[in-house]
Design goal:
This protein is of the alpha/beta class and about 400 residues long. It is built from nine helices and 21 strands. Strands 1, 5, 6, 7, 8, 14, 15, 16, 17 and 18 form a ten-stranded mixed beta sheet that branches. It holds the Pfam family DAO.
Length: about 400
C-alpha cells in the first residue's frame, strides 16, 4: 500500500543523512525485536532499550519513511473522540483513565525529546478546539466541564473572547494546555538514534517475510537473513499487520499543505494549534520557521488520487479554508500532499499482547492521535514485558477487536 503521495514537507527539513548501522543479522538473540520503524516503532525501541533490553528495530523502508513522514505533527492529550463521548462508550472511570494516560504520554514525549541528539522542534503549545457551528456549542461546553471536573488543563472561550485573540469568530472553543507541535520525522529518527545510542541495532530497508517459533525463540525471516528474539513488538502502523487480519477497520485519506515562511504571524495567538468539532475536521499549526500547515478534507478511501492535479485541487480547498480563518493572510503554498491514516471502530489504539501468542505484542497507534498513542503504548508494553499489568491494558488491549492467527512452529 502506498502510504503517501505528493510533495512532502518534512523530509527536506531533517538534517540526518548519516545511515543507521548497516549491521547484518548475525545470529544474535535480542531481548525484543520491534517490527516497524515509524513513530510507534522508534519510540518503542527507545523506551525498551532504555529499560536495558537488547533491541532490534526493523523496517522495510528507511526509518520514518512511511506514514510518519506525512504526519502534520500536532500532539494533544485530547482525542478525536471527546472525553464525555468516550465515557458514554466505555464508562467514566475508564474514559478518564485513558485521557490521563494521554496526558502522561504528552509528558513522556517531551522528556524523550530532551534526551535526543537530533533537534525535533518539539515546542509546547496550547490548542484551540472551536465549535464549527452553533449547534455544537452545547457539546463543546459539556466537554469543557468534563475536562475541568477531572483535572485536565482547559479553558472555555466564548465568541467575543475568540474574536479578541483571533481574526475570526466562532460560537465557542476549548483551549487545552500541555500540548505540543513537533517535526515528526525528526522526532522519529531522533528516537531511533537514541535507541541506537542505547545499544539497539537498526535494520533499515529490511522487509520481514514471516515469523515462526524456533526452540522457544521467535524467528523473524527477512530478505537480509534471520533475526532471533525473545519478544516481538508489531508496530506496523497502517501497513499489513502480521498475525492478524488488518486491524485497522477504517482506512482514510487526508490532505495537507505547507506554506512558505510568513514574515509576521502576530495575528496567530500564541501559535496555538487549531482544530474543530466538524467531521472531518480541519487542523492547523505553525512551524518553527513561521510556516503554516493546514490539513483535513479526509476521504473514506485509500486509493491514491489518479493525478497530482487531484491533490492540487484539495490543496486549493485547504488554502481557501485557511483564508476563511485568516482573511488578510497572503501566503504561497510550498508543499501539498496526501496520506493514509487508519482508525479503529471504537476510536481507541490497539496496544497489548497477541491473544494467543506468548511474547508477541501489538502497538498500533490508530487515529488522529497516533504519536501520543505510540508513547502510551511503549509504556504499556514495557510494563507487560516486566510482568506488570498496565493501568491502561483493559482499555487498549487488542483481544476481541480483530481476528488473529498463530505463527508456525518450526523445528530448526
Amino acid at each position: 500500500m502506498e502510504l503517501h503521495e505528493g510533495s512532502l514537507f518534512w523530509p527536506g527539513t531533517v538534517k540526518d543523512d548519516r545511515p543507521f548501522g548497516e549491521k547484518e543479522p548475525d545470529g544474535r538473540v535480542y531481548g525484543a525485536a520491534v517490527i516497524g520503524g515509524g513513530m510507534s516503532g522508534a519510540i518503542s525501541a527507545a523506551v525498551l532499550s532504555g529499560e536495558g533490553l537488547d533491541v532490534a528495530l526493523i523496517d522495510g523502508r528507511a526509518i520514518g519513511a512511511g506514514s510518519t513522514s506525512a504526519n502534520t505533527g500536532l500532539l494533544q492529550y485530547s482525542n478525536d473522540i471527546m472525553l464525555h463521548e468516550l465515557a458514554d462508550q466505555i464508562g467514566w472511570e475508564k474514559a478518564v483513565r485513558f485521557y490521563r494516560g494521554c496526558a502522561e504520554a504528552m509528558d513522556g514525549l517531551g522528556q524523550l525529546a530532551e534526551k535526543m541528539d537530533l533537534d525535533s522542534s518539539y515546542i509546547s503549545r496550547s490548542s484551540l478546539y472551536y465549535a464549527s457551528r452553533e449547534d455544537d456549542r452545547e457539546k463543546v461546553r459539556c466537554e469543557y466541564e468534563a475536562l475541568r471536573k477531572n483535572g485536565f488543563r482547559a479553558d472555555y472561550w466564548d465568541e467575543p473572547e475568540i474574536g479578541h485573540r483571533f481574526p475570526f469568530q466562532k460560537p465557542c472553543a476549548i483551549v487545552t494546555h500541555g500540548d505540543a507541535e513537533v517535526n515528526p520525522l525528526a522526532y522519529c529518527r531522533g528516537a531511533a538514534r537514541l535507541a541506537e545510542r542505547r545499544g539497539a541495532d537498526i535494520f533499515e530497508e529490511t522487509k520481514v517475510a514471516g515469523l515462526a517459533r524456533v526452540e522457544g525463540l521467535i524467528q523473524i525471516r527477512t530478505g537480509r537473513g534471520t533475526i532471533l528474539a525473545e519478544r516481538v513488538v508489531l508496530a506496523t502502523g497502517y501497513s499489513h499487520t502480521l498475525l492478524a487480519d488488518h486491524s485497522v477497520k477504517n482506512l482514510n485519506r487526508t490532505f495537507a499543505i505547507a506554506t512558505e515562511p510568513v514574515n509576521d504571524l502576530s495575528f496567530w495567538h500564541d501559535h496555538m494549534m487549531i482544530w474543530e468539532t466538524k467531521r472531518p475536521y480541519l487542523y492547523a499549526r505553525t512551524t518553527a520557521d513561521n510556516r503554516i500547515i493546514i490539513g483535513g478534507l479526509d476521504q473514506e478511501t485509500v486509493s491514491m488520487p489518479q493525478s497530482i492535479e487531484r491533490i492540487r485541487e484539495k490543496g486549493i480547498r485547504l488554502e481557501s479554508a485557511l483564508a476563511g480563518l485568516f482573511p488578510d493572510l497572503d501566503v504561497d503554498v510550498s508543499h501539498i500532499w496526501t496520506a493514509v491514516f487508519g482508525e479503529s471502530d471504537d476510536n481507541l489504539p490497539m496496544i497489548g499482547r497477541h491473544p494467543e501468542e506468548k511474547d508477541v505484542y501489538y502497538l498500533l497507534g490508530l487515529g488522529g492521535n497516533g504519536t501520543v498513542y505510540s508513547m502510551m503504548g511503549a509504556g504499556v508494553i514495557a510494563d507487560l514485558m516486566r510482568g506488570k499489568e498496565s493501568l491502561l491494558s483493559d482499555i487498549v488491549d487488542p483481544a476481541g477487536r480483530a481476528r488473529f492467527w498463530r505463527m508456525a512452529d518450526r523445528e530448526e
